[in-house]
């Protein structure tokens, strides 16, 4: 049964309020939020959301819910200011950030009206200042990689800068650290798993793809690395990430498979994959999510477990692209 946007918003707000008042049972309220996302998605922004972001007084409803799903429980203004005061991070990385931030959702006016580039640069630079401290004692050496600007940008769109910083730190450090190491091992594992998923859910399409060596690296490296953020429209991406944050960043890979399944007939008829896959079609979050749920049900338990772990854990099966091609 459809719920009108006003009542849907009230449902979300009521659950958030109950969770704040009853922290001992917070997991129950998070489950309720997940169920609402699954069944109804999030309502579009309203005037209150817009005003909160204009004056910096609070998060949008989406921002609040993303923080809950990411389990952001530490907002430390004093720490954030001290990290800003450390100044610029390593020169090479700083200019890498600058090269990317100017292209962040480049053609989306809605995004640029709300998120100035200098804010995006400051947050990413500050994150690297924090990483410099963390990397001294951590086995995983986090750094800046392409695609971070997009994740960070969407967070800044939905919440104030300091909230976005701690949400971004939580997302990278806890949910996808292997996407943020210099070797981007999580991305490569995601690309390998993409191939394995296609092999199971659509053998005909997988056989067709094998005519192009390293097809998964050539065409799907970018959407997997960017969590589909390179494909417009931005508003649909937000709905897609509502579901991803609710149920796990491993869905990133399945979302890309779903987008390819939508193109399967065109792909199988094509003589040149580059003409079809150079850019994926505009996002349709509802359709992609629906197909993704269907695809996940077809995956063997072992493969699904690898998928869940791929962004945080080095998998046992580490295959280079040349080895993957030979195996297939």
Main attributes?
single chain, 328 residues, mainly alpha, Helicase, Ruva Protein, domain 3, Cyclin A, domain 1, 20 helices, disordered C terminus
What's the short version?
With 328 residues, the chain is an all-alpha fold. It contains 20 helices and no strands.
Task: Describe what this molecule looks like in 3D.
Residues 318-328 have low confidence and may be disordered. The chain has helices at 5-21, 26-40, 47-55, 61-70, 77-84, 91-101, 109-114, 117-134, 148-158, 161-175, 185-201, 203-209, 215-225, 234-247, 251-261, 264-269, 273-277, 285-296, 301-309, 321-327. It is mainly α and 328 residues long. Helix 1 (5-21) packs antiparallel against helix 2 (26-40). It has three domains: 5-70, no CATH class; 77-175, Orthogonal Bundle (Helicase, Ruva Protein, domain 3), CATH 1.10.8.270; 185-327, Ypt/Rab-GAP domain of gyp1p, domain 3 (Cyclin A, domain 1, Orthogonal Bundle). It is built from 20 helices and no strands.
Structural class: mainly alpha
Instruction: Describe the sheet with the most strands.
Output: none
Poorly predicted regions: 318-328
CATH class of the largest domain: Mainly Alpha
Average pLDDT confidence is 92
* CATH topology grouping of the largest domain: Cyclin A, domain 1
Question: What is the rounded distance between the termini?
Answer: 45 Å
Please give the CATH architecture of the largest domain. Orthogonal Bundle
Count of discrete alpha- or pi-helical segments spanning 4 or more residues: 20
- Write down the Rg: 20 Å
Please report which band the strand proportion falls in: under 5%, 5-15%, 15-25%, 25-35%, 35-45% or over 45%.
under 5%
Count of the domains = 3
User: CATH homologous superfamily name of the largest domain?
Assistant: Ypt/Rab-GAP domain of gyp1p, domain 3
Give the proportion of residues in helices.
55-70%
């Amino acid at each position: 049964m459809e719920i009108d946007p006003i009542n849907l918003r009230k449902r979300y707000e009521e659950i958030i309020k109950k969770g704040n008042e009853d922290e001992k049972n917070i997991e129950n309220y998070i489950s309720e939020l997940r169920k609402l996302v699954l069944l109804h998605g999030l309502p579009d922004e309203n005037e209150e959301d817009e005003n909160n972001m204009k004056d910096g007084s609070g998060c949008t409803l989406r921002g609040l819910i993303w923080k809950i799903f990411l389990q952001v429980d530490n907002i430390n203004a004093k720490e954030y200011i001290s990290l800003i005061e450390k100044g610029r991070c390593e020169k090479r990385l700083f200019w890498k950030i600058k090269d990317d931030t100017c292209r962040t959702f480049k053609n989306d006016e809605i995004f640029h009206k709300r998120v100035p580039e200098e804010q995006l640069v400051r947050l990413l630079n500050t994150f690297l200042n924090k990483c410099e401290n963390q990397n001294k004692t951590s086995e995983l050496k986090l750094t800046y990689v392409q695609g971070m600007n997009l994740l960070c940008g969407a967070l800044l769109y939905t919440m104030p800068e300091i909230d976005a910083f701690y949400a971004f730190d939580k997302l990278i450090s806890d949910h996808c650290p292997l996407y943020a190491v210099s070797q981007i091992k999580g991305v490569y594992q995601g690309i390998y798993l993409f191939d394995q998923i296609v092999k199971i859910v659509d053998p005909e399409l997988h056989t067709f793809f094998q005519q192009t060596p390293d097809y998964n690296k050539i065409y799907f490296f970018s959407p997997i690395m960017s969590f589909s953020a390179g494909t417009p429209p931005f508003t649909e991406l937000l709905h897609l990430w509502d579901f991803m944050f609710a149920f796990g960043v491993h869905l990133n890979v399945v979302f890309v498979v779903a987008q390819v399944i939508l193109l399967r007939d065109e792909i199988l008829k094509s003589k040149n994959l580059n003409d079809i896959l150079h850019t994926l079609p505009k996002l349709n979050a509802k359709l992609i999510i629906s197909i993704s749920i269907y695809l996940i049900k077809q995956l063997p338990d072992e493969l699904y477990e690898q998928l869940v772990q791929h962004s945080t854990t080095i998998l046992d099966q580490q295959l280079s692209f040349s080895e993957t091609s030979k195996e297939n």
